[in-house]
């Protein structure tokens, strides 16, 4: 039931994230004016604002001027709903669920914006620090596990310091937006465990390397082809949430 409710919430959040991804890079308000067609400025009717179903009902076109509506809109809504449901199923503690749902929502928006404009806006990253700190503190208090919160703070600071060192040593390799995001990534990973922190942080570079090689071999890119790193950082967190424990057990069995 929690996963179902989280999935429905994710569909609604995904609809809002489409607005965030479009407006935040342009410096526009995400609440005013209401959702409207960027071509004819007609307001989106309430029945057409239903996640996924609204796009299907409209057959992928504006109700007024019939301009095509990108299929990315329902895909973002559906993906966010599925991620919310999956995270709710995976987490052992319901107390920490709000924090991880917030991170997933912010992560989806940041990944898409980074892919679109190669930026990780402060308007999303900066407020996520106090929000996640408060939510994780509440989870630690509910579960009587303050060590998890301490671990999150240390992990966030450690990964932030690591990324800061990387960008100072090799500025062309990472952006300052990646450095600012790294504290959030480290915090939510370390709250789960030290293994999750190590696996999630490493996974970001592994995934980035694999995709980079693919771009060189398939798309004809070069070693200097710029790729946004934010999506790989977000993907690393998701990978660690679902796979850190089995990966740690598998690696431990190799050592023994």
UniProtKB/TrEMBL annotation:
* Domain Prepilin peptidase A24 N-terminal per the UniProt entry, residue ranges: 8-90
Q: Its GO biological process terms?
A: signal peptide processing
The residue ranges crossing the membrane are: 99-117, 124-142, 148-172, 184-217, 229-251
Instruction: Kindly list the places in or outside the cell where this protein is found, as annotated in its UniProt entry.
Output: Cell membrane
What is the membrane topology here? Multi-pass membrane protein
User: Where does the protein principally reside?
Assistant: membrane
Q: Which UniProt keywords apply?
A: Cell membrane, Membrane, Transmembrane, Transmembrane helix
From which domain of life does this come? Bacteria
Q: Name one Pfam family in it.
A: Peptidase_A24
Q: Name one GO cellular component term.
A: plasma membrane
What range(s) does the Prepilin type IV endopeptidase peptidase domain occupy? Answer: 104-213
GO molecular function annotation: aspartic-type endopeptidase activity
Recorded hits in PANTHER family, A to Z, give: PREPILIN LEADER PEPTIDASE_N-METHYLTRANSFERASE-RELATED, TYPE 4 PREPILIN-LIKE PROTEINS LEADER PEPTIDE-PROCESSING ENZYME
Instruction: Report the family membership.
Output: Belongs to the peptidase A24 family.
Q: Please report the name of this protein according to its UniProt entry.
A: Prepilin peptidase
Species annotation = Kribbella speibonae
């Amino acid at each position: 039931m929690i996963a179902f409710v989280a999935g429905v919430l994710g569909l609604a959040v995904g609809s809002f994230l489409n607005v965030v991804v479009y407006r935040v890079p342009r410096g526009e308000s995400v609440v005013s004016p209401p959702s409207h067609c960027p071509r004819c400025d007609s307001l989106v009717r309430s029945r057409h604002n239903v996640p996924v179903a609204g796009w299907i009902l409209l057959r992928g076109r504006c109700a007024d001027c019939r301009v095509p509506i990108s299929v990315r809109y329902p895909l973002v809504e559906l993906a966010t709903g599925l991620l919310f449901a999956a995270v709710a199923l995976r987490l052992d503690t319901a107390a920490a669920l709000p924090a991880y749902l917030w991170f997933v929502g912010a992560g989806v928006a940041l990944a898409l914006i980074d892919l679109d404009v190669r930026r990780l806006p402060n308007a999303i990253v900066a407020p996520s620090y106090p929000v996640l700190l408060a939510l994780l503190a509440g989870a630690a208090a509910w579960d009587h596990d303050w060590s998890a919160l301490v671990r999150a703070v240390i992990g966030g600071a450690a990964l932030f310091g690591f990324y800061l060192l990387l960008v100072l040593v090799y500025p062309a390799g990472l952006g300052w937006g990646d450095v600012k995001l790294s504290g959030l990534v480290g915090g939510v990973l370390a709250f789960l465990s030290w293994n999750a922190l190590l696996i999630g942080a490493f996974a970001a570079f592994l995934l980035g390397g694999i995709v980079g090689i693919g771009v060189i071999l398939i798309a004809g890119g070069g070693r200097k082809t710029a790729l946004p790193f934010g999506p790989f950082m977000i993907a690393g967190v998701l990978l660690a949430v679902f796979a850190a424990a089995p990966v740690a057990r598998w690696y431990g069995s190799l050592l023994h």
